[in-house]
Fold this protein.
Amino acid sequence: MPVPRIEPNTFHFGPDGVSFPNNPNLPVLVYHQVLTTGAHSIADCFEEVFMRNGWTGCWRWGVYDFQHFHCNAHEALGIAQGKAKLQLGGPQGEGFDVAAGDLVILPAGTAHKNLECSRDFLVVGAYPSGQGHYETNRGDPNEYAESVERIAATPLPETDPIFGKGGPLVRLWDES
């Protein structure tokens, strides 16, 4: 079940100007221990809460072990099992340790990669309503200019995937 409302940590990653645009306007949000175990598995809880708050297209898997981003969708990564070190912001970005119960929200364009993970690492991913048909970009310099335009055109979510309309994401991204 969700814990009482917590504030996420925020991180900004600028464009590299060549391959990985990131999102120059919106911060990555990292919520630590936003969900705890209860009667359901953390994966089930993430799916239920995401769907209740209008984040759809849920999937269960991991995070690719190569740099990639989605230029036409924001992405929520709910860590359901295990732990990992994820690199955010492209090859020049930062490594983040995540564990079961954590949530990472990536604004459109934010490069990410799995650097290492436990054998049981499981993520529940989701996207704001209407953004479930996302593209996966791998940093092709020939696609950079078009990616920047598509990132700028990606609408802001109306809700935080965990806390709904009044959640931190809405406030923090509206202020950006």
Remarks:
- The longest strand covers residues 55-61.
- The CA atoms of residues 155 and 171 lie 15 Å apart.
- Strands lie at 9-11, 28-31, 55-61, 75-81, 83-88, 94-99, 103-106, 112-117, 122-128.
